[in-house]
Specification:
Helix 8 (204-215) runs parallel beside helix 10 (263-287). The protein is α/β, with parallel strands linked by helices. The chain has two domains: 1-71, no CATH class; 74-347, SGNH hydrolase (Rossmann fold, 3-Layer(aba) Sandwich), CATH 3.40.50.1110. The chain has helices at residues 15-36, 40-58, 74-78, 89-92, 125-132, 183-186, 188-198, 204-215, 218-231, 263-287, 331-347; strands at 82-87, 139-141, 174-180, 237-241, 292-294.
Amino acid sequence: MVTRRRIRDQRGQGTLDYLGIVVLGAILVAAIVLGTGSGEPIRKQVSQSICQIIHVADGGGDCGAASTVGGETPEQQATSGDYVALGDSYSSGEGAGDYLDGTDDESFWPWGHDPNVCRRSKNAYSASVYATFDFKGDYIFGACSGGIINDYYQDNHGGNEGEGPQRDHITDDTSLVTVSMGGNDFGFADVLQSCIIGGSCDTEEHTKEVDAQIDAEIDRLAQLYRDMAADAPPNARILIVGYPQLFPDPEDITNGSDSFIGENEQAWLNDRGAHANEAIQEAIRRSGTDVEYVDVSGALKGHEVGTDDPWINDLDLGDFPVSRGSFHPKAEGQAAIAALVQQQIRNGP
């Protein structure tokens, strides 16, 4: 794997020096690609590197939307086939309402079938992404509320009817995959419960326990990303979508917070969420793949839980014992996440 480096301008070096670097780099790349026979990830990274070197030499330019060696822009690469949306409740659109038929069914025996509560919403960010771009292929929506890492490899652990391994949705026609995964493996639901029922969760002992649980999943996530990269076609883009910050920063709370969660606990939960996103990024680094991270931590800025105009649900006691949509983005929150995913699709890594 070739590491991308930004060559900084150095006084006294002329354009010919930079062009010499470009030529030397091209020779090395050719040797690597022809010698290994598996150069697609390398080609994508080198294309970006050479663009940056050349633009430093000519005094400017923007490589943010650099085309690949094959001549495609990042957007064209992502939209050249099927879009596969995988992951957990933050990808399925839990809490955003307007669920697809057959994914919000809680009927049990003796009515004759198992339930399916994947809660795939028409307001999920993936639906907006597919509607925004001109994909040459189809939209395959395989995210499921409650999803865990194992659900990528095995039938859904919750027994949701018809939900096989999420990896089965990826085919040779796939050009884009988006996925949020890890929150349930990190134990987010248990952490929130401890703050609500226990009354105080921001203790040193609890912090160490929760952070250790998050860190323990890094290698499993890294392997997940390797397997996704192996399952997808070589030119497909894989976007790993992080998690949004749930509560406002303490300095942004001016008139108190209208939430069931106390302000000290809110700050503590924000820190744990940030740690979770850092763990996801570390897993990407460890994976050795070129999957891309989409930072959505600030997607709900000014509209977090407890603000005057929240784009995310607070604790909802409307369903027994509580609504599954609690602490999940509303339709507006999903739209804000979609905007950041769309930006990543256009700009590339």
